[in-house]
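Aim 2 progress update. The chain analyzed this quarter is reproduced below.
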Amino acid sequence: MQIPSNTLSRGAVAALSVAGTLTLAGCYVVPVHPPHSPYPAPAAVPVPAPPAPISFTARLYPSNDAAAPHGMVMAVVTNDLNGRGHFSTQIGGEAFTGEATREAGSSRAGTASGSGNRGGFIQCRYTMNSPTLGTGHCRMSSGATFTMHVGG
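Predicted structure tokens:
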């Protein structure tokens, strides 16, 4: 019996089958759309920004004869909202810079001290009635004293 020319032998079919399987063995399917999760995606939680420092002015009014020639003096206080701040003023041509801190255990009372660029210093005691309003007094190394009004 003769095999028709368009018919493949069993061996040829098996060889083609094995060759096709080996060719496709290195392939994999990539989904076009990711599968839907039964759980919602986690929401982004915004992180609040730390509070920004508050800057305000303090007015120093002369309270003795040694301070009278200076007149009313302006100072700048920057409260960093964690119990400390920065203090600066210029009196009689001398620039003073320093730090202001609250007294331990008090949310209102504090001290501000600054050193001058000519060797002088100033020290102030104050009481705050709000985060930006308060009163106090200051004494310079020269003996000049001032009444201090913070804010407003």
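The chain has a mean pLDDT of 82. The CA atoms of residues 21 and 27 lie 10 Å apart. These observations will guide the mutagenesis experiments scheduled for the next reporting period.
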